[in-house]
Design goal:
- The complex is a heterodimer of chains A (about 525) and B (about 325).
- By secondary structure, chain A is an alpha/beta fold.
- Helices cover about 30% and strands about 25% of the residues of chain A.
- Chain A folds into two domains: about 240 residues, 3-Layer(aba) Sandwich (Rossmann fold); about 260 residues, Rossmann fold.
- Chain A is built from 17 helices and 20 strands.
- In chain A, α14 packs parallel to α15.
- The C terminus of chain A is likely disordered.
- Chain B is mostly helical.
- Classes of the chains: A alpha/beta (about 525), B mainly alpha (about 325).
């Protein structure tokens, strides 16, 4: 593609886990001083490939060349010595250590800490200044926002002398503003000669940031392109192997009766911290209301109260036929009986039981129904048939009800849960993070199902960390910050930038954001 | 009433220190192990094994030092077994620890009977084969000074060497954990082993080092029980001190100095209970002996059940590290 020197070259890299081939004869060239994006669906082998490069796994066969020199990378130490650094998707930080301690961990300059700390401070200051990577070195990692934690990860890699930086899904946890800052830093790093490899599923970021992009599908590199010569649509098609509709077709909203009515809702936790404060909003039949916010600003608590999982401490909620007040608690079964379906944010913890087979997962929460129970024994055959039916309707693969739930991919687990919850066309659907960790083909399908159920007259409350998703699915979006609703906007009039500012409570123009309970 | 006299209080305090010593060794051992992410319920067994090894070797060789050496070696071996099961083979750390406790409890008696034919007891040691109390410099002169002299001679002086070693062990533990590179890595591996692994440090090697240090410390603690505090090994003589040390460590939030003070608290209750036997207290009258003797154990239960709910354990404590993504 160009004749600039190659920083990393992978030749015929293959890796299998049991019968699963995660990487198949991967050939990849990454040029020095460029930003190289790697895209692909979940399970396409991106993370495995990068793990091989960072020494987590050893390839079954194939060769790695770093700066045109064949290099064996057996563990992280080898990778670090070869000048490769990694910013992991789930940060590799010790939460109750200070930023400084995290940075020097494993790269201390002597036996005594005081000596290492004094040495490190100067060097880190230099890094901070040259790349704009400012962090409070004495703060505890658990007390700084995720955007800052990511900087710590980046500094950690640079402090170890990384000339090649791999970032795995770096923007998954960031607000749009934080992502912008990260991109500025990455560009500054590139200017000064660092090679950057970025793994992401967000095509918009690829288009904005990268010089080259490689697409992976089924463990192979499908193609490598110059970013300037491709488009989002082309990349999406290459990733999935078929045409993808990134836009969602949606009919105009036809709101019916109010099915969720939240008034002055508040929640104070055991430590006396206000998790929710004076929340007011309504959701009507036939509309999708999105809830935006940086994670941890009360969205999860809101979902938990509405779904009967936890009590509230102030206010009143009327949801379907159920009334929730601090004195009048409800429980998930009563909620289900009132035709309220809940797709939890954390599907592994609350949506399913990983050790159960799919057919058991398919009736969780509805397992008391007489359809599945005889006098003493459960009706195994009915349960299996029901699961097969759900799997067919929602395209769950593989459509085998006897496989353990844990062994399905994230997207298929989510489809099974959605199938279970949506099957009876609930009056109210509460959805948390419907497409977290779900690949692009399944996202398209899930989005279509959510819009479908709204068209059938359900009231949908959608909590999501993906602004794209909120903007394209919702009819209205409420924005939460610090347990309060700080904005309520018509989705057709909102954009990412505006939501990002609202989410960090730094939006100035108050005319567009209203604090009333409805538009 | 002379129960509250100055001398009585001094003697209760010095008894507190004597009783706390093995607890402190075991608690420091527990801190090393658990800070690295390996739960060490086998402290009890390692204390008992150390006690037996030192008493046996001292009985045969008439050398307290060889006894100490044997106890340390046994502590290291048991730690290696614990490490092999729970670090190398990712087994359940509690199960492995309990297994050590059960094996030691039985094996010490069986071997004792086979070797010494005294129904599981080892021969009573002469004083020169034990760690005997030592007098600090100038005790004879200073003890004549009122109050200060009493404090010096009765509270600070007159313990055996291992008591002073236990204080050094606390200081050393603190210094190692918080001032050295090894300590930083050790604490990190107990919190987030993945972070340590990705930083290019071996998780398993670090954890082995930590449990081995624990083995050395419990060996010294066991030695103290059988050949310093007592003059022979008696069946199950550790009597739950390993568990009490574990409670003290948790109550001290896995920090060396608070853990030392909670050892003192347990030691003080024990000392008080010995002193209170048969004494009639004002208002209360005579307290039943059984209740007093049970008090350290009752405190253990209360502390573990109630107060410790808020203590935050090292996050990866008890979780074997399995490399995966």
């Amino acid at each position: 593609m160009t004749d600039s020197p190659v920083a990393i070259e992978l030749k015929d890299i293959s890796k299998s886990f049991g019968s699963v081939q995660a990487n198949k004869n991967v050939n990849l060239k990454i040029y020095k001083g460029t930003i190289h994006g790697i895209v692909g669906e979940n399970g396409a082998g991106k993370s495995t490939l990068m793990s091989i490069l960072y020494g987590f796994y050893e390839a079954d066969h194939g060769k790695i060349y770093v700066n045109s020199k064949e290099t064996t990378i057996k563990n992280s130490t080898d990778a670090i010595n070869a000048g490769i650094g990694m910013v992991h998707q789930h940060f590799m930080l010790v939460e109750n250590f200070t930023v400084l301690e995290n940075i020097i961990l494993g790269a201390e300059s002597g036996m005594m800490l005081s000596h290492s700390i004094a040495n490190a401070k100067n060097e880190i200051r230099k890094l901070e200044e040259s790349y704009g990577l400012y962090v409070d070195l004495n703060a505890l990692v658990q007390n700084i926002p995720v955007g800052q934690q990511q900087r710590v990860e980046t500094i950690k890699a640079l402090y170890r002398g990384a000339k090649i930086l791999i970032l795995d899904e770096p923007t998954g946890v960031l607000t749009p503003q934080e992502a912008d800052q990260l991109f500025d830093i990455l560009r500054a790093l590139k200017e000064q000669g660092t090679t950057i490899v970025i793994i992401t599923h967000k095509l918009r970021e690829i288009m904005r940031l990268t010089d080259y992009v490689s697409v992976m599908r089924g463990g192979e590199i499908v193609t490598s392109l110059k970013t300037s010569q491709t488009s989002k649509e082309e990349l999406a098609e290459l990733m999935v192997g078929r045409k993808i509709h990134l836009e969602i077709d949606k009919t105009p909203v036809k709101p019916g009766e109010t099915l969720i009515d939240v008034r002055n809702l508040g929640l104070t936790d055991a430590q006396g911290v206000k998790r929710l404060d004076n929340i007011n909003f309504q959701v009507k039949a036939g509309e999708i209301v999105g809830v935006a916010g940086v994670s941890g600003n009360g969205q999860s608590e809101l979902l938990e109260i509405l779904s009967g999982l936890s009590p509230c401490s102030e206010g009143k909620v009327q949801i379907s036929d159920i009334t929730i007040t601090p004195k009048r608690q409800t429980d998930p079964r009563a909620v289900r009986n009132a035709s309220i379906a809940h797709v939890p944010e954390d599907r592994i913890k609350r949506g399913l039981i990983p050790q159960f087979v799919a057919s058991e997962t398919a009736i969780l929460g509805y397992h008391n129904s007489s359809a599945y129970n005889g006098i003493i024994l459960t009706k195994t055959e009915e349960i299996r048939n029901h699961c097969v039916y759900l799997m067919k309707n929602f395209d769950v693969r593989p459509n085998n009800p006897d496989i353990k739930s844990a062994n399905f991919s994230g997207g298929n687990q989510q489809k099974l849960i959605l199938a279970r919850e949506m099957e009876k066309i609930p009056k109210v659907l509460l959805v948390g993070q419907p497409t977290r960790g779900v690949d692009i083909g399944a996202i398209e399908f899930i989005h279509k199902q959510i819009v479908d159920i709204r068209d059938k007259g359900s009231a949908v409350l959608l909590v999501s960390g993906e602004l794209d998703e909120l903007l394209s699915l919702s009819d209205r979006i409420i924005v939460m910050f610090d347990g309060k609703i700080v904005g309520q906007v018509d989705a057709s009039k909102a954009d990412e930038r505006m939501l990002g500012l609202l989410m960090t409570n730094s939006y100035e123009n108050k005319e567009e954001s209203q604090n009333e309970s409805s538009i | 009433m002379d129960f509250f006299s100055f001398n009585e209080i001094l003697s209760i305090f010095s008894a507190t220190i004597r009783i706390s010593t093995p607890l402190i060794f075991a608690a420091m051992a527990g801190i090393f192990s658990e800070r690295s992410g390996v739960v060490d319920i086998g402290l009890e067994g390692k204390l008992l094994a150390g006690a037996f090894a030192s008493a046996s070797v001292a009985a045969v060789t008439h050398s307290a030092w060889l006894g100490l050496g044997a106890a340390i070696v046994i502590g290291l071996i048991l730690s290696l077994i614990h490490g092999f099961a729970s670090i190398t083979h990712k087994g359940d750390q509690v199960v492995s620890g309990v297994a050590i406790n059960i094996i030691v409890s039985g094996l010490t008696v069986v071997l004792g009977m086979a070797w010494f034919h005294r129904s599981g007891q080892t021969p009573t040691l002469p004083n020169d084969a034990r760690f005997m109390p030592i007098n600090l410099y100038g005790v004879d002169t200073i003890s004549n000074i009122p109050i200060i002299g009493d404090i010096y001679s009765k509270l600070l002086s007159g313990y055996n060497l291992l008591v002073y070693v236990s204080f050094a062990a606390v200081a050393l533990t603190y210094w190692t954990l918080f001032k050295t590179r090894f300590g930083l890595r050790l604490r990190a591996v107990g919190e987030n082993p993945k972070a340590v692994d990705t930083a290019g440090i071996s998780v398993n090697l670090l954890r082995y080092k930590a449990v081995l240090i624990g083995g050395i410390l419990t060996g010294i603690g066991g030695t103290y029980i059988s050949i310093a505090q007592n003059a022979s090994f008696i069946k199950d003589m550790s009597a739950g001190q390993g568990y009490i040390a574990l409670a003290a460590m948790i109550f001290g939030k896995w920090k060396p100095i608070p853990a030392m003070f909670s050892c003192f608290l347990f030691g003080f209750l024990e000392a008080l209970s010995m002193r209170l036997q048969g004494v009639s207290l004002p208002l209360i009258g005579e307290v039943p002996v059984q209740l007093i003797q049970a008090s350290p154990y009752i405190l253990t239960v209360i502390l573990l059940a109630g107060f410790v709910g808020r203590a935050i354990a090292p996050k990866a404590d008890g979780i074997p590290y399995i490399k995966e993504r």
